[in-house]
Amino acid sequence: MSKSIAELLELAKEVAVVAGDEVFRLYDTEDFEAFSKDDESPVTSADYRANEIIMETLLTKTPDIPVMSEETDIPELSERAKWHRYWLIDPIDGTQEFIARSGDFTINIALIEKGKPVIGAIYWPCGQSLYFASEGEGAYKRCPVETKPISVRRFDVPTEDVIMIAISRRQSRERVLKRLTDKREYQMLPTGSCSLKACFIAEGKADVFMRLGKTGEWDTGASQCIINEAGGAIFAATFADITYNARDSVENPDFVVLGDQRVDWRNIIQYYK
């Protein structure tokens, strides 16, 4: 018998924490090896271990739901097009942060249904925080045992308030500011992984994040469900929708994560006009 969305969300939360705790053990003891993929992006034995835990659990407990992971071979679109729903996972988002020991890495699990994220679970081991959401049910944060609803920061005056920008620890502030109008006051919040920035926006710690560069659909799946349920949005560079399982490539375009939707983001973010 197929599981309900509520049951699948509980499963996603559970496996994200189990995998995340194992990743944290490897991080804490420095018991891991780092490698480079063919595209020169970093990967570690901890990524593979997290992938093993998540894949084994999901395939065992939901054998009727396919799984797509950053750390496994991606089937051809002709095969994926048959999937009504599937798990989309990033065993460690922020591998570079894991290696650099900043602590800003997460475990991401999403359920995609008819091309849209309907479940998102993101676990931040070093922050002992679990962010999660399901379509139509709101977004939440558990840290470490208290669970509370979260939402994006609402501007008192959408045209005037200071905007908090989540920015990579290795991203040029000048490069970001060049893509913004000079009519606002901005502050920067240096943060690690893409999904952690999105979670910070979802809980009102930041207002916007611009991702310029290569990412995969697994980098936005869980984040998109959480940010949508928290009152924000994720769009591609042209303000078009991010798509899932719709193209041969699973690479994302440049994208932006936005908080309060009353703000005129299209006129603030020059790069995305």
CATH homology superfamily name of the largest domain: Fructose-1,6-Bisphosphatase, subunit A, domain 1
Q: Give start-end ranges of low-pLDDT stretches.
A: none
Strand order of the largest sheet: 3-4-5-6-7-8-9
Briefly, what CATH class of the largest domain? Alpha Beta
How many beta-strand runs? Answer: 14
Give the overall pLDDT as a whole number: 92
Here the CATH topology of the largest domain equals Fructose-1,6-Bisphosphatase, Chain A, domain 1
Radius of gyration: 18 Å
Distance between the termini: 47 Å
In the CATH hierarchy, the architecture of the largest domain is: 2-Layer Sandwich
Number of domains: 2
Annotation field: number of helices = 8
Class inferred from helices and paired strands: alpha+beta
Global shape: globular
Measured as a percent range, the helix fraction is 25-40%
- SSE arrangement, N to C: HEEHEHEHEEEEEEHEHEHEEH
How much strand content do the residues show?
Answer: 25-35%
Largest sheet: 7 strands, mixed
Task: Describe the structure concisely.
The chain is 29% helix and 27% strand. With 273 residues, it is of the alpha+beta class.
Please give a structural write-up:
- With 273 residues, the chain is α+β, with helices and mostly antiparallel strands.
- The protein contains eight helices and 14 strands.
- It has two domains: 146 residues, Fructose-1,6-Bisphosphatase, subunit A, domain 1 (Fructose-1,6-Bisphosphatase, Chain A, domain 1, 2-Layer Sandwich); 110 residues, D-Maltodextrin-Binding Protein, domain 2.
- The strands form four sheets. It has a seven-stranded mixed β-sheet with strand order 3-4-5-6-7-8-9, with helices on both faces.
- A hairpin with a 2-residue loop joins strand 5 and strand 6.
- Helix 6 packs parallel to helix 7.
